[in-house]
Amino acid sequence: MNLPDLALQIVYGRLAWGLVIAALLLAVLPAALPRTKLLIMGACVALTALPGAASPAYWLALAFQYPSGLLTGFCIMALRARWQGRPARFAMRRSLALGVAAVGLVLYLDTFGVLALGLYYGGFSPVAAPLLACAAAIGFAINVWRGHANAASAAMLIAVLLFSLLRLPTGNLWDALLDPLLWSWSLGSVLVAAMRMLAARRRQAQAAPELAPAAVAAAATVTVTAE
Question: Quick one: which of 96, 174, 193, 213 has the fewest CB in 10 Å?
């Protein structure tokens, strides 16, 4: 088991929480000038770098530990999108949200002893975890190079590189890919996707009776014309 240095973990936690807070603020605030965006990002990172309990990261770490590398990667990509003037995307893509939600459910059930599969402890494996991370890094790098699902693949690549090179955030592969906030975001995204699907089906069902008379009239016209 190869754990990261405690000082490195603390530095990562402060910086990562600063990026998370900055990404959230720039997502909900109105569009701002590049200088204002840079000021917000710098202020958030500086605020979380304050010593001890003066830092918001101190209290966030008590409740949520460290952000996963994947959440940090998503926040970096979100900040990049805001810098380029692109609108915020508040929900994950449906396929990604379903995957994160399912993996998180199995992992948390295993952690609480409901399934007792030992998956979390497998994330500390000195052989399997690094090999899996390296294989994932190669796959995500190829996706980024090809331009497929660029933001998600780039976030995944950041996560596995943080784990592979620095063993962050905790030395466990699962902690690099999942955390309670990220899992909650995926569950919310799945719920939003389900509500959108239900709304689309209702609109189709409401439109069907309105289209039926028009279809009957068109068929009658065709019949009369044929006769």
Answer: 213
Residue 166 makes CB contacts below 8 A (sequence gap 6+) with: 4, 8, 12
Residue 31 resides in a domain: yes
For residue 143, is it within any domain?
A: yes
53 is a domain residue: yes
Tell if the pTM clears 0.85, that is, is over it: yes
Residue-range definition of the domain harbouring residue 65: 6-206
Q: Would 155 be classed as within a structural domain?
A: yes
Task: Tokens for 150, please give them.
Answer: 């660029």
- Give the chain's domain count: 1
